[in-house]
Design goal:
With 125 residues, the chain is mostly helical. The chain has one domain. The chain is built from four helices and no strands. It starts with a helix and ends with a helix. The mean pLDDT is 95. InterPro entries: DUF423 (IPR006696).
């Protein structure tokens, strides 16, 4: 679990920074201010949850568990669904993709609940 979460954290961190720079420099003149803000929201949540994946990787060294693994999976899934849908929405204008975004948000929330359960159950980490 450590290696998988660390690799995902690195991948999502790298791509989050790259997409943020792309938005700031490459999309600024092409997207409306509203769509640019939506894209940046996707970047913001991606970077936050890349750090959450990094935390899951570190905790897994001391307290590996299925619930912790579920948190990692849910954070990665949340990035793909939440941030990914916002990126595609802003770049294509397909408003119907907005229906996917809440599923990603729900995955984020469930990941945080799983991480909280791990903390609740932890003894002397």
């Amino acid at each position: 679990m450590f290696r998988a979460c660390l690799l995902l954290a690195a991948f999502f961190g790298f791509t989050g920074v790259a997409l943020g720079a792309f938005a700031a420099h490459g999309l600024k003149a092409k997207l409306s201010a509203e769509y640019l803000a939506v894209f940046q929201t996707g970047v913001h949540y991606q970077l936050i949850h890349a750090l959450a994946l990094f935390g899951v990787a570190l905790v897994s060294l001391h307290a590996p568990s299925r619930v912790l693994g579920a948190a990692g999976i849910l954070f990665a899934l949340g990035i793909l669904l939440f941030s990914g849908s916002l990126y595609v929405l802003t770049l294509t204008g397909l408003g119907k993709l907005g229906i996917i975004t809440p599923l990603g948000g729900t995955a984020f929330l469930a990941g945080w609940v799983c991480l909280g359960l791990v903390a609740w159950r932890a003894q002397g980490i």
